[in-house]
């Protein structure tokens, strides 16, 4: 049996040389794994970003099966990052779950990288109120990562440009406005007098409903974004929401959080600040799992990497999401 | 047992009227909660900014406990804001 000291020696002698090989990110000591099972044989573990078939490697990049008669074990660990990098930092490539925003807003969340169904281009998915400044942006406007509130500035932090968005239809929020109410009652008086069935209701709830608060931005370079979502990984497809389903999301402000789908087919009035209200229908309501700045996060099934919705609104008690099918249809995109 | 098609139909019919009541911010479909516990009764959930005692509500702002046989559930959710 090889003893640990011999492995340690071999590691000291060969670490530098192994670290020079393409894809190798670390060297360590551990038990060899065979067919996914841990054995009791200690060996030298070579950590690589990604396992590649021998045929795709130059001979100098191949990890030998043993060094100084110590067995090696190649283990895929992905890119290793300092764990103190937080969602509000600058990320290149930028994964889902980090801060992003139109240059004139505060900050929201980069939901995920999706594909344009027509052009196959990689695009950034988030909310209209994150990427398109709640309808006030122009196509081509700069999108910053991190968002302005987190220190993102023009032009150094420009990661993408606004490509398209679904305009938000607002209703006037005048529930107790005496003028609108009296205009409506005067009009209704005449409507009644004329025997008309079409009465005016005080203007607020003429439902001009929205389905989504969604927008797309095109990365400056495809390599500036990552297909992964922080703490979740890569999305492999979509799924329809169901009552009681366990869910999760990764967002700029509250990071990785979990929740449950509590209500479906919700029609809700959402406040966009300074008296602007928009009505949304067909929405998904979950337990509280977000705060300001989490807008744009992708709502994902707790057990599989399937997208369910796009987080965009909420309160201390609840979080509201657009169904992912409506987002996909409105923006002509797909996952993977 | 009420099926979800029936609830959807009632929801379609009464949503505008419910949204006009003071404090109501949303209408949705979900299981009724009783004493903080989820039951298995599907219901029309009326989301309100704040639960207000009946005597403090004008009659037209009261959410009926059922509509055409569909049970309602008034749930406090606060003010819903874009995040």
Question: Nutshell version of this structure?
Answer:
The complex is a heterodimer of chains A (336) and B (83). By secondary structure, chain A is mainly beta.
What do these coordinates show?
The complex is a heterodimer of chains A (336) and B (83). With 336 residues, chain A is mainly beta. Chain A is built from four helices and 23 strands. In chain A, the strands form four sheets. In chain A, strands 7-6-10-11-13-9-8-23 form an eight-stranded antiparallel beta sheet. Chain B is α+β, with helices and mostly antiparallel strands and 83 residues long. Chain B has one helix and five strands; from the N terminus they run H-E-E-E-E-E. Chain B has one helix spanning 4-19, and strands at 24-34, 37-48, 66-67, 70-76, 81-82. The termini of chain B are far apart. The chains are: A mainly beta (336), B alpha+beta (83). The interface between A and B is medium-sized, with 43 and 24 residues. Strand 21 (306-314) of chain A pairs antiparallel with strand 5 of chain B.
SSE-based structural type of chain A: mainly beta
Instruction: Indicate the structural class of chain B.
Output: alpha+beta
Q: If you average the pLDDT of chain A, what whole number results? A: 90
Q: Describe the largest sheet of chain A.
A: 8 strands, antiparallel
Helix content of chain B: 10-25%
Q: Which residue ranges of chain A are poorly predicted, with pLDDT under 50 across at least 5 consecutive positions?
A: 175-180, 199-205
Question: What characteristic shape of chain B results from the CA principal axes?
Answer: globular
How large, in whole angstroms, is the Cα Rg of chain A?
26 Å
Q: Distance N terminus to C terminus of chain B?
A: 37 Å
What is the approximate shape of chain A?
A: elongated
Major sheet of chain B: size, sense and barrel closure?
Answer: 4 strands, mixed
Biggest sheet of chain B, strands in spatial order? 1-2-4-3
Oligomer classification: heterodimer
Number of strands of chain A: 23
Order of helices and strands of chain A: HEEEEEEEEEHEEEHEEEEEEEEEEHE
Distance between the termini of chain A: 47 Å
Strand proportion of chain B: 35-45%
Radius of gyration of chain B: 13 Å
Order of strands across the widest beta sheet of chain A?
7-6-10-11-13-9-8-23
Helix count, DSSP H or I runs of 4 or more residues of chain A: 4
Helix and strand sequence of chain B:
HEEEEE
């Amino acid at each position: 049996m090889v003893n640990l000291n011999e492995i340690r020696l071999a590691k000291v002698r060969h670490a530098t040389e192994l670290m020079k090989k393409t894809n190798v990110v670390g060297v360590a000591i551990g038990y060899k794994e065979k067919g996914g099972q841990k054995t009791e044989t200690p060996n030298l573990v070579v950590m690589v970003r990604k396992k590649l078939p021998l045929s795709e490697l130059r001979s100098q990049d191949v990890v030998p099966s043993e060094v100084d008669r110590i067995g090696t074990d190649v283990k895929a660990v992905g890119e290793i990052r300092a764990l103190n990098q937080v969602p509000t930092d600058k990320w290149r490539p930028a994964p889902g779950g980090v801060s992003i925003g139109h240059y004139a807003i505060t900050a929201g969340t980069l939901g995920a990288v999706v594909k344009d169904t027509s052009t196959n281009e990689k695009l950034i998915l988030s909310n209209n109120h994150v990427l398109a400044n709640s309808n006030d942006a122009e196509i081509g406007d700069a999108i910053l990562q991190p968002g302005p509130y987190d220190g993102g500035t023009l032009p150094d932090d420009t990661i993408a440009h606004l490509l398209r968005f679904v305009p938000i239809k607002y209703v006037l929020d005048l529930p107790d406005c005496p003028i609108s109410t009296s205009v409506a009652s005067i009009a209704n008086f005449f409507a009644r007098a004329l025997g008309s069935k079409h009465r005016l209701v005080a203007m607020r709830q003429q439902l001009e409903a929205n389905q989504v608060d969604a927008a797309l931005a095109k990365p400056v370079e495809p390599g500036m974004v990552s297909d992964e979502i922080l703490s979740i990984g890569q999305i492999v497809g979509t799924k329809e929401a169901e009552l009681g389903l366990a869910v999760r999301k990764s967002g700029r402000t509250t990071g990785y959080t979990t929740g449950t789908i509590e209500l479906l087919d919700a029609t809700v009035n959402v406040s966009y600040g300074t008296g602007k209200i928009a009505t949304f229908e067909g929405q998904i309501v979950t337990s509280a799992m977000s705060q300001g700045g989490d807008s744009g996060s992708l709502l994902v099934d707790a057990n599989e990497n399937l997208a369910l919705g796009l987080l965009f609104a909420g309160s201390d008690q609840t979080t509201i999401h657009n169904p992912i099918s409506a987002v996909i249809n409105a923006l002509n995109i797909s996952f993977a | 047992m009420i099926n979800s098609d029936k609830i959807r139909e009632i929801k379609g019919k009464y949503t505008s009227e419910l949204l006009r009541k003071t404090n109501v911010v949303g209408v949705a479909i979900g299981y009724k909660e009783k004493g903080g516990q989820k039951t298995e009764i599907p219901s029309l959930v009326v989301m309100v900014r704040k639960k207000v005692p009946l005597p403090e509500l004008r009659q037209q702002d009261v959410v009926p406990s059922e509509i055409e046989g569909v049970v309602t559930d008034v749930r406090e959710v606060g003010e819903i804001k874009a995040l």
